[in-house]
Amino acid sequence: MILSEDDIRYWQTWVGRTAARDERLDPAALRRFGSALGEAGQPSLAHWAFFLPDIPVDELDVDGHRKRGGFLPPVTLPRRMFAAATMQFRAPLLIDEQATQTATIRSVTRKSGHAGELVLVEVENRILQRDLLRIVEVQTIIYRDEGPATPPVAPAPFTVREEDMVWHPSTVELFRFSAVTFNAHRIHYDQTYATSAEGYPGLVVHGPLTAARLFSLAYRQGQPTGFAFRAMAPLFQGQPILLRAGSAPGTFEAVRCDAAVAMQASATYG
Question: Which label site among 28, 125, 207, 268 has the fewest CB atoms less than 10 Å from its CB?
Fold first, then answer.
């Protein structure tokens, strides 16, 4: 699909739009989120348990995302994904108290990738409680062309060190994470849709689920005050994923079974 400069300029009129939500941070929602991750206490990236997208069913598109338009610009490229984020943890969230999340469209950018046209939308989320800014997160949402089908991933040997983790995401784990985050994107639970409509060789592991796994590695080294991740290649259910520290201090990565680095992350402390 070829985008015109008029398309880009129109979508860029969304920059600066805001949307605010007030919500009590429900302890039951937090427990369910932790259960989906298999973590007790305060789970990794716990703020994702709240301010979920409560979209009515008649406002969903065929892929399970919200129909185009509304708060996000109506980008016409057919594929959508949550590809990256940077986070600052400035103060702990107070569970069972009211909080306000304000989302702001920061930028709309056109780029070209190996699969064709890309549009990147940056959304900043700020969570406040008791008039104190607690968390700032900037998410990058990518829109892209359909592109060719993704070929099956051929396993290759990789070295597992004692401190590394090998993760085998199951269909149940993917379904539960979709449920607990109210994420209806069908590539994570509908095998037929993922393979026939979007051309993947299997169910796709959620980027945020992988990011939470990498955050748990970062947490072993201390309480992060900042965390960032970037997805680089899709991960698939039924194939092992190596979670390990990167070569530089404070870096982490998820390695696919063909030895490709599928996600990179970094944490800051203090």
Answer: 28
- C-alpha 217/C-alpha 105 separation (Å) is 30
How far apart (Å, rounded) are the C-alpha atoms in residues 34 and 176?
11
Give the list of residues 6+ apart from residue 229 with CB closer than 8 angstroms, or none: 84, 85, 207, 210, 211, 214, 263, 264, 265, 266
Alpha helices for the chain (secondary structure H): 5-12, 27-37, 171-180, 191-192, 207-219
Mean per-residue pLDDT, 151-174? 93
Q: How far apart are CA 244 and CA 254, in angstroms?
A: 7
247: alpha, beta or left, given left = phi > 0 and alpha = psi -120 to 50? Answer: alpha
The Cα–Cα gap between 98 and 56 comes to 24
Residue 84 to residue 126: CA distance in whole angstroms: 16
How far the first Cα of the chain sits from its last, in Å, is 46
pLDDT tens per residue across span 14-26: 999 999 999 999 9
224 token code pair? 């992060």
| Residue 221 CB neighbour total at 10 angstroms | 13
Instruction: Render the burial of 175-186: b for 16+ CB within 10 Å, e for the rest.
Output: ebbbebbebbbb
Q: What are phi and psi of 232, to 5 degrees?
A: -120, -20
